[in-house]
């Protein structure tokens, strides 16, 4: 019984951290290109409602995820047009995108409220899932959980082992230097922004199709903002982002287990619900308290507009 409880907590932690990993990996690539997109919450929300609408209309989980990805990507390209082509302020545009996305998803999702989808069965990996305690937790998961692990490995390889990853980081460090040697800075930044939006859309799709297969206004519940914080406080390091995401998931699941067990704790339930956000921020602040390290890893041109020479 004790092993089953530990397995359940680990599995639930992994699931709860998955949407954060998806969104944060996309945002990390976007920021490595020198673009600061604060609209993750809005892109996640629109991706979630788009995915749910397709699933509710009879689409497969795969087509639902594609719809969420496309919706998030479309939202990010609007942001890209405003900031990269029209040179609007990136912070203001990102905040506007977040607010607009949350409102738009609430409007579109009105007909779908309280209409659940069928649960998507997990995929069991033979032999590995038979490992005691950790096997069922890690290898009897949803397809997007496995995808998030592949995504982390792919982002690490792309940024630090591939030529185009080096070019992308060069664009984030010095766009004028990259432009002077012939690279299309704006096109590369558009690609990074589109990738970030697509990952945010997939993160939203995971929330509404896999995690809790229903649509409810505000179901993203600040995860887009947590993903943004993860990228910065993890000093733009992918593995630290994963650690922070699972930390958030672990604290969230722990407080749910406490509430579900019916333990008598004389604190408001709202305080318990806020603990995952508070604990994640506190721990990430502590591990990133070295200001020199943050400055060393932060893209130099982050948030700065760039206009190619005519």
UniProtKB/TrEMBL annotation:
It holds the Pfam family BPD_transp_2. The keyword Transmembrane applies. It is found in: Cell membrane. It comes from the Bacteria. It is a multi-pass membrane protein. Keywords: Cell membrane, Membrane, Transmembrane, Transmembrane helix. The keyword Lyase does not apply. The chain crosses the membrane at residues 6-23, 35-56, 62-84, 91-109, 143-160, 190-212, 218-236, 243-261, 267-287. This is ABC transporter permease. The lineage of its organism: Bacteria, Pseudomonadati, Pseudomonadota, Betaproteobacteria, Burkholderiales.
């Amino acid at each position: 019984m004790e092993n089953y409880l530990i397995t359940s907590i680990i599995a639930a932690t992994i699931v709860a951290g998955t949407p954060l990993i998806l969104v944060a990996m996309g945002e990390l690539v976007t920021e490595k290109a020198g673009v600061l997109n604060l609209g993750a919450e809005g892109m996640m929300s629109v991706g979630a409602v788009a995915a749910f609408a397709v699933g509710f209309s009879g689409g497969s989980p795969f087509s639902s995820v594609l719809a969420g990805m496309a919706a998030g990507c479309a939202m990010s390209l609007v942001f890209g047009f405003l900031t990269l082509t029209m040179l609007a302020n990136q912070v203001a545009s990102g905040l506007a995108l977040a607010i607009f996305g949350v409102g738009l998803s609430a409007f579109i999702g009105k007909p779908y409220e309280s209409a659940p989808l069928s649960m998507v069965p997990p995929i069991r990996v033979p032999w590995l899932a038979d490992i005691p305690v950790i096997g069922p937790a890690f290898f009897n998961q949803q397809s997007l959980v496995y995808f998030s692990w592949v995504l982390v490995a792919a982002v690490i390889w792309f940024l630090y082992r591939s030529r185009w990853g080096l070019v992308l980081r060069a664009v984030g460090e010095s766009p004028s230097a990259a432009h002077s040697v012939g690279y299309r800075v704006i096109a590369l930044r558009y690609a990074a922004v589109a990738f970030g939006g697509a990952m945010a859309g997939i993160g939203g799709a995971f929330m509404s199709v896999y995690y809790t297969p229903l649509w409810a206004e505000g179901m993203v519940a600040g995860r887009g903002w947590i993903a943004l914080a993860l990228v910065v406080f993890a000093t733009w390091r992918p593995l630290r982002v994963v650690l922070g995401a699972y930390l958030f998931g672990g604290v969230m699941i722990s407080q749910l287990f406490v509430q579900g067990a019916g333990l008598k704790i004389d604190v408001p339930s709202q305080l318990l619900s806020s603990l995952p956000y508070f604990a994640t921020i506190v721990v990430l602040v502590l591990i990133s308290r070295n200001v020199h390290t943050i400055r060393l890893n932060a893209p130099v041109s982050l948030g700065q507009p760039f206009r190619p020479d005519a």
